[in-house]
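debug: dumping io for the single-chain case to check the tokenizer round-trip. Nothing else runs in this session.
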Amino acid sequence: MSYTVDALDEVRAKIAASDTVLAEARNRLRLVREIASTFPGALRTYASGSIAQFTVNHPVSDGDGGLVLNRRCYPALGPDGGGEAPQQVVLDLCALLAPKLRADYRAATCHKSKRGPKLHFAVPIQDQDPTVDLVVGLTRRDGNGLWIPNLEDNTWEASDPEKHVLLLNTGTVALVRLRRRVNRLVKAWNKQFTEPGFSSHNLSMLAYECVAGGQNLADALAGYFAYAAEAVAAGDIEDPAGVSVPIKLLIPRVDAVRRLRLAAAALDEALVHDDDQQAVRAALAKVYWNYDLDSASGTFAGAVNALRRSPRVTTATLGLGGPATVVRPTRAYGGASR
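debug: decoded output
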């Protein structure tokens, strides 16, 4: 038994998405894809991102998918056509999606994200209201993947979101399961920062590169942080699909590398003391500081700390006569268990 794995499993339980909310997010994505498939020139739709990769964390914020258009139906559109920018086709798609969605979601609205329409549903469930982001893609004349919009500057960029999903879901059952668990844990780590350093896509591609089979979760996560620190220090991460430009960081490289190395050191520290529950939790609290690991909840050390934090109770407080003799709080605590 590994105390490090036990603590990481505790974090995994805390970040697990609600089955009910996740099912609703999948249903919303399915509905948007069904409507989008009726758009003129539609070849296919697909699911992408964390839903398709099975790496959704709580809270469930969105579902990602895409619509692939046949460029032959749009001869003026995109780099392989007349060079027309993506702005208008995205607006046309929004004009189709929003009215049809209102048959099921009366207050649904369509906005724009960086890559295409962003659908809002205005029906919270368990205080979560997942949106749907739909990437508009054009088939490419030469090369793999798709042309997808960058609406921030109204241009097109090459990418292969369908291949990314395929890569992350490829491998033995044990390897894919381990990769997903590591992915969810590093996403939770990254999200704790006021300014996250990595996109989810960046973290996922690093997981694809470095997570190998035959490891337990603690060793795999420690290996991830060590590998990622060196890979990021060396430069931007290349697209494993071989289509997109290298993946950019969200913060300066020196800060991203420092974060990764600190996390790697903390995992190493936990593994060195893997048979000492208190030491493990103290080390992992440096990585998952939002998850109360330093309180050693449920352990003898945690019980002692809780007792030390409890206010003193006096006979006067209890309404008893006589000198206000200090009465210490009493509580029975079970010993630590594996």
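debug: round-trip ok. The beta strands are 42-48, 62-69, 109-112, 117-120, 131-139, 146-150, 155-159, 313-314, 326-327.
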